[in-house]
Amino acid sequence: MEREILIVGLSHRTAPVEVRERFALADGQLDDAYQRLLSTPGVDEAVIVSTCNRVEVVAASGDPEKAVPGIRAFLERLPAEPLPLRAEYLFVRPGAEAVRHLFRVAASLDSMVVGEPQILGQLKETYSRAAAIGATGAILHRCFHKAFSVAKRVRAETGIGTRAVSVSSAAVELARKIFDRLEDKTAMLIGTGHMGELAARHLLAHGVAELIITNRTFERALELAREFRGTAVPFEHFAHHLRRADVVIGSTAAEAFVVTARLVQGVMRERNQRPMFFIDLSVPRNFDPGINEIDNVYLYDIDDLEGVIECNLEERQREARRAEELIDREVQAFCAWLESLAAVPTIVALREKCESIRKAELEKTLATLRDLGERERRALDAMTAAIVKKILHAPITKLKHSEDRRTEDYFIDAARRLFDLDDPERK
What we know:
By secondary structure, the chain is of the alpha/beta class. Helices cover 54% and strands 13% of the residues. It contains 15 helices and ten strands. It has helices at residues 17-23, 30-38, 64-76, 95-106, 118-133, 138-157, 167-179, 194-205, 218-228, 238-241, 261-270, 302-340, 344-368, 374-400, 405-418, and strands at 4-11, 45-51, 54-61, 91-94, 186-190, 210-215, 231-234, 247-250, 276-280, 297-301. The strands form two sheets. Strands 7-6-5-8-9-10 form a six-stranded parallel β-sheet. Strands 2-3-1-4 form a four-stranded antiparallel β-sheet. Helix 6 (138-157) packs antiparallel against helix 12 (302-340) and helix 7 (167-179) packs across helix 8. It is elongated and about 110 Å long. The termini are close together.
C-alpha cells in the first residue's frame, strides 16, 4: 500500500497565541491523545508536535482523503471544551510539502527567530515519545531522522545560528568582540530589569568569571546573587566597586543618569586605562552618552544594539536562503525514496518468482547429474543465482529509480504483466 506523509496543524504563522495555547498538550495527556489519533481512519503512523509556537500532527497515511478530516476532528477535541478550528487557523501540508515543512521546522527556518537552536531538541524529544508509545513506523522513523540530519547539516554548512538576534545576546556578542575572551572578566549588573537579567545570564553562560549585582532594593540584589553565584553590593556603594568591572550592564528604572562620564574617568584612572564595556538597556538611559568619548571605554545603548540585531538578521536571512537550497535537495531525495516504496511489492514478487524458477530448474538438472560432487553442486547454485541477479538488475533498477510517478506506474504495470506477477496489493 502506498503511503503519503502529511501534516495538519496550526502554528504562530496561522493562529494567535490565545488560540494556540488552548490546543497545547500536557505530558500526561499524550498517551490518551495518541490512542485516539491512531484510531483515526487513514492514520497509519503519527507524531504530535506540541510547542509554544505550534501544534501539528505529522502522519503517514495510506488514505489522505480520510486522514485529513479525521486529524482536524482530533485537533478540535484537544481543548477541555471542543473548539472548532477556523479555516485560517489550520494548515494542511501533503506529500513533498509536508516533508519540506518538517525539514524547515527542524532547521529552525520556520521559527519566530530564524536560527534558534531549541526546536531541534524539542522535535527529538517529541519523536522519541511517539516512538516509545508505538505510534511510528518505518516511514516516519526515516523522515524524522532525515529531518534531524538535515538540521545538523544546516547548522554545520551555513551561518544561520551564528549571529545574535536578541538584545541580550547581541550585548554579549559585542562584549566577546571587545575582550576576545570573557573567562577572566568581571561583570556588574546595575538594576535588575528583565533585559539586564537576561544579559547577565548570557554572560555567565559564556564563561564570565565574576558577576557583581546591585539594586535599589538590596534584597532583590541578594536574591539574584544567590541564583547567579555572584556578589551583591548596596546600591549606594556600587561606585566603589565599579573599578572591578570590565562589563557594566545598566537595567534600572532611574530617570537620571546612574553612571556619569566624570565617574568613569576616575574609575579608568584606578584601572590604569584597562578597557571597559558599558551596555545601557534602559529607557530613559542609565549611562551618560559622554562615557563613549573616554579612551578605552565602549558604550552601547538600546538603539545601537537594535542596529546590530538588524544587521545580524539580514545576515541570517542570507544564510537561510542557502539553507533552503540544501533542504530542497534533501526533500527531493527523500520523496524519491518514498515513491520507490510503491515498487517494493513488485520487486519482491519478481525476485521471489525468478528465484523459485531458478531453484526448481536447478533441482531438475542436479537430479540428472547424480555423479556431481558437493563442490560442483555449490558452483552450479552460485552460477545460476548470479545469472538471475544480473538479468534482474536492469528491470529492478528501473523500478526503483523511475524519472517520475507516471513512468514508475508504467514500469510496475509492465513488470506485472510481462512476468505474470500475482500482486493483490496493486489489483
